[in-house]
Amino acid sequence: MTAGSCLCGAVAFEVSEFSSGIYKCHCSRCRKAFGGASSAAVLVDEAAFQWLRGSDGVHLYETESGFKRYFCQCCGCLLPQLVSSLGLFWVPAGLFDEDPGVALAAHIYVDSKARWEVLDEQTPCLQEGFA
Question: What is the pTM of this model?
Answer without folding.
Answer: 0.85
